[in-house]
Design a protein that fits this description.
Keywords: DNA-binding, Transcription, Transcription regulation. Residues 41-60 bind DNA. By secondary structure, the chain is an all-alpha fold. It has a single domain (4-214), classed as Tetracycline Repressor, domain 2, CATH 1.10.357.10. Helix content is 67%, strand content 0%. The protein contains eleven helices and no strands. It has helices spanning 4-13, 19-34, 42-49, 53-56, 63-87, 95-116, 118-124, 132-135, 147-160, 173-189, 197-214.
Length: 215
């Protein structure tokens, strides 16, 4: 009889409608605090959500499934950071200046996210087997566009402004993206993580200048 209340309370958690979201939130918190996907533990997520470990398995078959869900949240937040960078741009009248500024803002937002959310940045790409996951709806930001879609849109804007020749547009994402991602990785977990804020800001500007000229 003594364990009846405990069992009743435990069973009630199974009917918690937001359990999946609570588990993902716990995974996001672990990734942020622990520095990446390695910090995500399904049993710990269940504990933080206030349910028994078995309850977590009704939503995620294993730890990897939870990591994938957290990765999609991270990708969506990456897209949101890029959109925020674009939204913060000053009003410009020249269409070419607008297109160039929006293109640069995509890269600046990407690098800002990596610097401010290194754990989520690492998690965002931890489980991706191909580029399709980066573009799927679950990875979209508040505008409904994913990070790769925002980059593609910015490149299309360069074409419309006659800054990028149409014949050079195809595949341009895979020139700009790896360049920015490479710097982000060096900053998050490579030797550049020891640079101070001013040095990183200067490096970001120089990299974006280089990509701008190259594109």
């Amino acid at each position: 009889m003594s364990d009846t209340p405990a069992r009743t309370a435990q069973r009630s958690t199974y009917r918690h409608g937001a359990l999946r979201e609570a588990l993902i939130d716990a995974g996001v918190a672990m990734a942020r605090a622990g520095g990446g996907p390695e910090a995500i533990v399904l049993r710990e997520a269940a504990r933080r959500a206030g349910v028994a470990p078995n309850a977590a398995y009704t939503h995620f078959k294993d730890r990897e499934a939870l990591v994938q869900a957290v990765a999609r949240v991270a990708l969506a937040r990456l897209a949101a950071a890029m959109t925020a960078e674009q939204d913060a741009l000053p009003d410009l009248e020249d269409p070419a200046a607008v297109a160039r500024a929006r293109f640069r803002a995509v890269g600046a937002g990407y690098l800002r996210f990596a610097r401010t959310e290194p754990g989520l940045f690492r998690t965002a790409f931890a489980t991706q087997q191909d580029v399709s996951a980066v573009a799927e709806p679950a990875a979209a930001g508040p505008t409904g566009r994913s990070a790769i879609a925002l980059l593609g849109e910015a490149l299309d804007g360069l074409v419309d402004a006659h800054l990028l020749a149409p014949q050079r547009r195809a595949g341009a994402e895979f020139l700009a993206w790896p360049t920015v991602h490479g710097l982000a990785c060096l900053v998050v977990e490579g030797p550049l993580r020891f640079l101070d804020t001013g040095q990183l800001d200067d490096l970001t500007t120089q990299l974006l200048d280089m990509i701008d000229r190259g594109i």
